[in-house]
Hints:
With 228 residues, the chain is of the alpha/beta class. The chain contains eight helices and eight strands, in the order αβαβαβαβαβαβαβαβ. The longest helix is centred in the first third of the chain and has 19 residues, at 13-31.
Amino acid sequence: MKRDFISILDWTSEEIRSNLDFAVELKHQTKEGKCPQLLQGKTFGLFFHKPSLRTRLSFEVGITQLGGTAIVLTEQDFKIGERETVSDVARVMSRYVDCILIRTFSHQMVLDLSKHATVPVVNILTDFNHPCQVMSDMLTIKEKLGRIDDVRIAYLGDSNNMTNSWLNIAARIPLDLRIGTSPETLPDMELVRKIQEIGISSIKVTHSATEAVDGAEVLYTDVWASMG
């Protein structure tokens, strides 16, 4: 049975920890020139509705280093949802590639793609969330602090897909998450309440940057006008 990665909530706490440990080991092996060819013979279709430098480079390089083949498609290649329906794109790509990765605006498009695809679908950014980014951020925290549990993180900036991703991971890993933002750019307070009710993380929303960063071990900032 295929498994998608649309949200951090698709993984358990144990899977998040295991994948972070695995990423640390892969980085170590790669630096020693011993990168395992885990994706040998696998082809990945990367669809970019939104342009990207870091996301495209990181996935193309990573797939190649692990022995796989990355095929990049953009809106210049086909118009998903217009000339080509999402369901048709999902079915066609599923016959040619082993995994679909998509960076787009509409979260619903990713959900629809997942519904009709017979191969795994990976969300590499939507307007709603960005699970791969928050996993890479947690990897950095693990490498720098030596742990991921109970870290006090101050998020400063407008509430966006990254805010949602941090809230989602706080439902799986115990964090002390402080969100410093303006009254005009509050996060989804219903999502905040749901994460608070789960009870493993402390979540605080404030309009004071000073209050948000007080005692923080990690400062995480984003622009006030989203880059994607």
